[in-house]
Amino acid sequence: MSEQHESLSVEKQKEIMAKYDPESSVRDLTGIMAKIVFFGLLAFSIYQLYTTTIYPLPAQIHRSIHVGFGLVLIFLLFPATRKNREKGKIAWYDIVLALLGLGVGAYWPLFYEQIIMRAGSISTLDFYVGLLAVILVLEATRRSVGLPITIIAAAFLAYAYWGRQMPGFLIHRGVDLDNIVQSMFFTTEGILGTPIAVSSTFIFLFLLFGAFLIKTGVGQYFNDLAVTLAGKRTGGPAKVAIFSSALQGTISGSSVANVVTSGSFTIPMMRKLGYRREFAGGVEAAASTGGQLMPPIMGAAAFLMIEFIGMDYWSIAKAAAIPALLYFTGVWIMTHFEAKRTGLSGLPDEQMPDRKQVFKQLYLLLPIVAIVLYLSSGLSVMRAAIYGILTTILVGLLRREKFRKLYPIVFGVVLVGYAIYGMATGGFSITQSLVAATIATILVSYLFDGNFMESVDALVDGARTALGVVAATAAAGIIVGVVTKTGLGLKLANSLVTLANGEILLTLFFTMLAAIILGMGSPTTANYVITSTIAAPAIILLGVADLPAHLFVFYFGIVADITPPVALAAFAASGIASSEPIRTGVNAAKLAIAAFIIPYMFVLEPRLLMIDTTFMETLWVVFTAVCGMLAIGAGLIGYWFRRMLWFERIASVAGGLTLIYPGTMSDIIGLAVFAVILGLQFLIKRDLIGLPVERRGKKVQA
To answer: How many CB atoms within 10 Å of residue 385?
Structure first.
């Protein structure tokens, strides 16, 4: 972070994170317990890297150990109540729960063959261990993720058990307790199902990648680069927030974390320039929330999409690229018009960083470029993540003056040595050679420049970040297991279509409401699992392809973070801006209006996702969409080249919507309205025509 700008203290950032983000509400441990947790987190990361690159385990064993690590560390780090967090001590019952979590995690590895031999039936011991696993997962989820998703998972379990008592179409024959426990922990359709499978592979590795990026200094560099590129523009600080948050989304899987990380820097900057408190907080919340939509690394839920719709990650990220750019274009347009309306300029020269110095450090973006190349080259997601981590470590070493000349030699020698040995004996793959070379390079770096502990800290931070995801995906597995067991997904999908009378727009609207309501206070990962299991099938029943349907619910699950009355990202931004939370949320939702429109666009017009289209067709769709957002943004803010009249605002929004709605006739009407409003604005601005208008008793100034 540039020293030329004020920012919140680390203590204040932690306070805001703990208040609005359950995943950050951890104990501040000291002494022996702090060391135990530190080495536990380190062991978690080492285990994940080891099983990914060197020694893969059977799926049930690996997922069980992954859950076990998560349970133990959650009960040690996350207190039962906020009051206990402030004490910073671990209660005796938390130690007991951690030991029980250890037992649950070790059960599959210890009794793997016996469980497999029982082929679907469970023993008495199996039953109690499975029941304990369900209870521990729910409690761990409540502590680390929050109450909403815990209540939803518990409600689904109750639905499975009391199926015969359910009304109407929800009725089913019911599932007895033995079958519930068996399906929840002794199959791959419950806690150890698809969500935890993705958490224990793709998600964990990319969270590690993000942690290494932060330690490399990329997060700080994003801020300086954003100020350099956007700081001098009209309303510069707001555009810095947008630019920085779009980049920060690459290394943060949480809207709240993104708000606090970049907002502690950008919100004070916006306030100093003259932005209203609620608007400054709204800009940061809208931009930070959109970070999870930005390829190449979207939110953790995007990795679940790989398994749910059977597409490779690069295809998903490529399809999401244009909608994400349109989203940030929309936020940029709104902030630009607001800055023009209020007469806010860019940053003065003395507050700008040294441009040459910033551009000299462009090599810090190499890990981002590399991950795009790895994913687009056809590498598996896990291998791309491993290579991304290695690239980040090497880029981090470039910042070490003493080691800059030495590391290529060390790395090259070790890599070539291992490669030759591997070819000669067949004992090492290229991945193992790269891992060994990197480890050796880090060790040498530590001897010369102390870089080793930064890498260790990155491993620990990555594991800590993953704990909430472990709990959320385990709880989501419970929900998916119940849906699979009872057939609830198809029932709800059919009922949603019936309620909408088979109309696609109504079905999309009801699905949007469901995703936003379920997303209030729930992590995006769990929200996506629920909506993709229940709501997305309703859209698919109407003939929509899998990818647009799943991206639709993915978008609105994320938008829930800035949608009042429970808008956690906006509330976190209000904590930094000292603004009124609901008003901040309203401003954020207004600025992010594109996020409420774009999903409808790509469902009705899949060419926006580059599906079955040509380059020129995609270009036309993007052009009309950008024009539409320009018109809508101007109408909502009330300013284009000058302040807009009330009828201009209405016409501008209406014309923008017709441009966004796919269709030749709607495009013609929209472009005509766009041209008329634009021409009228320009002519009055230039005093080529006169139009005296009174607004609230004051003459509108051109």
So the answer is: 26
pTM of the model: 0.83
For residue 639, what are the β-bridge partners? 643
**pLDDT tens, residue by residue, 639-663:** 888 888 888 889 999 998 898 877 7
> Structural domain boundaries of the chain?
10-191, 402-448, 614-702
| Model confidence pLDDT, tens digit, residues 279-315 | 888 888 888 888 888 877 776 777 888 888 888 888 8
User: Which residue type is seen at 53?
Assistant: T
Helix (H, G, I), strand (E, B) or coil at 145: coil
| Pair 651, 644: CB distance under 8 Å | no
Contact 496, 507 (CB under 8 A): yes
User: What single string gives the DSSP state of each residue in 159-203?
Assistant: HHHTGGG--GGG------HHHHHHHHHSSSSSTTSHHHHHIIIII
CA pair distance 140, 142, nearest whole angstrom: 5
Amino acid at 599: P
The rounded distance, in Å, linking the Cα atoms of 363 and 361 is 5
Which region, left, alpha or beta, applies to residue 31 given φ > 0 means left and ψ of -120 to 50 means alpha? left
Do 702 and 687 form a contact (C-beta atoms < 8 A)? yes
List alpha helices for 54-189, DSSP H: 59-77, 82-87, 92-110, 112-118, 124-144, 147-161, 177-185
